[in-house]
Design goal:
- Pfam families: Lum_binding.
- GO terms for molecular function: riboflavin synthase activity.
- The protein is of the alpha+beta class.
- 16% of the residues lie in helices and 41% in strands.
- It contains 4 helices and 12 strands, in the order ββαβββαββββββαβα.
- A 6-stranded antiparallel barrel has the order 1-2-5-4-3-6. Strands 7-8-11-10-9-12 form a 6-stranded antiparallel beta barrel.
- The protein is globular and about 45 Å long.
- The mean pLDDT is 92.
């Protein structure tokens, strides 16, 4: 489990394309400290497994399902990515419960800068709109954010200077894709209420 508090802005250093998958090599000095084979690291909000690591770099395999479901397929050598290690049991939950299981992708539609923060508008797939509410939580490229406004096919978030400086949302522009993970609690509630209704 993750919390959506990005630890560092990493970089793709190599991409190996396979028949039905690809292999990334990524640089991330903070997240590779103490890393072992089989550990999980969230890359732009996608939970990936460390295959091997050397120095401040690690390798992860990405299967076709993940490439189709997320925006990882557009990454290339030099791409910057948000990196986060799983939260430790008993640690502070700084963001919200994030699984690293991307529900879909959105697109940066608009950026409105102001003196101390920036409002970003992001497209929202129709099948995810019911899980997104004003002042609720959403994960964008692995970043735990609070929804400002929720529309039928978009939502907005406000970004503080720290988020702009330390994550990919500081450099992404209109037209760029982002990974979205909605609040998992909302999905469980929907499923439970649906099951309860079907028994009446």
């Amino acid at each position: 489990m993750f919390t959506g508090i990005v630890e560092e802005l990493g970089e793709i250093t190599a991409v190996e394309t396979l028949d039905d998958a690809c292999r990334f090599r990524l640089r991330g000095p903070a997240v590779t400290e103490g890393a072992r084979h089989g550990d999980s690291i969230a890359v732009n909000g996608v939970c990936l497994t460390v295959v091997d690591h050397e120095g401040d770099e690690f390798t992860a395999d990405v299967m076709a399902e993940t490439l189709n479901r997320s925006s990882l397929g557009v990454l290339a050598v030099g791409s910057r990515v948000n990196l986060e290690r799983p939260t430790a049991v008993g640690a502070r939950l700084g963001g919200h419960i994030v699984q690293g299981h991307v529900d879909g992708t959105g697109e940066i539609l608009e950026r409105k800068p102001s003196e101390h923060w920036e409002l970003v508008k992001i497209s929202l797939p129709a099948d995810l709109a019911r899980y997104v509410v004003e002042k609720g939580s959403i994960t964008v490229d692995g970043i735990s954010l609070t929804v400002v406004d929720a529309g039928p096919d978009f939502f907005t978030v406000s970004l503080i200077p720290t988020t702009l400086a330390l994550t990919t949302l500081g450099i992404k522009q209109p037209g760029d894709p982002v990974n979205l993970e909605v609040d998992v609690i909302a999905k469980y509630v929907e499923r439970l209420l649906g099951a309860q209704g079907s028994t009446k």
